[in-house]
Design brief:
Length: about 375
């Protein structure tokens, strides 16, 4: 173990997530150099000062080309992961990329191909995999304790404050749908829990848009996947819950039935409730977002990355990030989603959107080109 080289880490995107991961990197002994990039110079320079980073630039290409860099975190806005990821793959760096891998299925396929051609270790930020409750479920299903999965149901409910924050920096919101942006987390979770036998061969979905159309997106998408072995899975998300809803961000329910048992997961965060005369604001507070809301009841722990105590974030994103540092430093096997899984997730979330758009059941797999042609038609 002696004389092991400390790693150089580049973080592209210094917003909410880049800041969380950067603060953890500062404390990881195996990281000896941190460089930052963001097109928002004020935000990036502030993070540099706060974590004592070594370098900042507004040009991610300049950062990724630095000789100190061994690994890259791509934490740019949801629709701008592709260019920095391709640059990092080209440079042969290990990567952690925020979800979704891309917002265009053809670009996602291009990113995956570049990662595979470069032979680099790249993971995607499906943070909820790092929670004890989901890890134990994964283990129980993997070891056969509910037999073969026959039917599963997922219900994700989100406060509309979250998508309001998500779309604020762009006007091109065609593919910033509930499934692509947020349902991807619960879709990844369910497919990961169900394991390799869960191979979708068709999807039938419906969407509705009433209140979220003013933001250029949809309210909800509900769908049913059929698997190769005949199992069925109902995947549902609505991200249009009112601002006053006590769950500040994400609430989830998952039921998975097998031939020998069942696992029922309640993850709506109704187990830790605050009621107060003091008004509670949004849990997700990115730069430039103001949401006028007064909430007096709060389901605590509903912000997926975790919660702040003593000025630091505690929870799944801490576990995920520190475990990734162990992965890149010690070459440890970890439960992170691979780039291939990230690509699969984008394909399936977009397939739900296409089925909803056409009103027809869609056979899977589908090519990225056919998917995008249908969505762009
Ligand atoms: N895993 C999770 O639980 C979780 C939670 C929230 C967000 N996310 C994902 O993390 C990513 C970042 O989200 P966020 O909440 O930090 O958003 P944010 O808006 O706070 O930060 C994104 C930053 O990226 C910068 N940026 C955009 N394009 C850039 C470019 N080309 N070069 C350099 N900088 C660029 C923006 O200026 C902004 O500062 C998104 O993909 C989001 O979907 C994941």
């Amino acid at each position: 173990m002696a004389n092991r080289k400390q790693l150089g880490l580049a973080i592209v995107g210094c917003g909410v997530v880049g800041r969380i991961r950067g603060a953890l990197a500062k404390d990881f002994p195996g990281i000896g150099w941190i460089g930052l990039a963001d097109i928002n110079e004020r935000l990036g320079r502030q993070l540099k000062e706060d974590i004592g980073a070594d370098f900042f630039t507004t040009d991610f290409n300049e950062l990724i080309a630095r000789p100190e860099v061994d690994a890259v975190i791509v934490a740019t806005s949801t629709w701008s992961h592709v260019e920095p990821t391709l640059a990092a793959a080209d440079a042969g760096h290990m990567m952690m990329i925020e979800k979704p891998l891309a917002t265009d299925a053809r670009e996602s396929a291009q990113v995956l191909a570049a990662i595979e051609a470069a032979g680099v270790d790249a993971v995607v930020g499906y943070t909820q995999r790092f929670r004890r409750r989901f890890l134990v479920v994964k283990e129980r299903i993997r070891t056969g304790q509910i037999g073969d999965v026959t039917a599963a149901v997922t219900r994700a409910f989100m406060n509309r404050m979250a998508p309001t924050g998500e779309v604020r920096l762009t006007q091109d919101r065609r593919f910033l749908t509930p499934m692509v942006v947020s349902g991807t987390h619960s879709l990844d979770m369910c497919l990961w829990l169900m394991g390799d036998a869960a191979r979708p061969v068709s999807i039938f979905a419906r969407s509705t848009e009433k209140v979220m159309s003013e933001l250029g997106t949809k309210d909800a998408t509900f769908g049913v996947f059929t698997m190769e072995d005949g199992a069925i899975w109902s995947m549902n998300i609505c991200w249009a819950l009112p601002r006053e809803w006590p769950g500040a961000v994400y609430g989830l329910e998952i039921g998975i039935v097998g031939t020998k048992g069942v696992i029922d997961i309640e993850d709506t965060h109704r187990d830790v409730i605050l009621a107060t005369e003091m008004p509670q604001g949004p849990a997700y507070n990115p730069d430039g977002l103001t949401i006028d809301v007064e909430r007096n009841v709060d389901f605590l722990t509903s912000f997926p990355p975790g919660d702040v105590h003593g000025g630091e974030l505690w929870g799944p994103m801490r576990e995920e990030t520190n475990t990734w540092f162990q992965r890149i430093y010690n070459k440890k096997e970890t439960p992170h989603a691979t780039a291939a899984e990230g690509h699969r997730n984008l394909m399936l979330t977009m397939a739900m959107d296409l089925s909803a758009k056409t009103g027809r059941e869609l056979e899977l797999p589908i090519s990225p080109e056919a998917l995008m042609a249908g969505l762009e038609a």
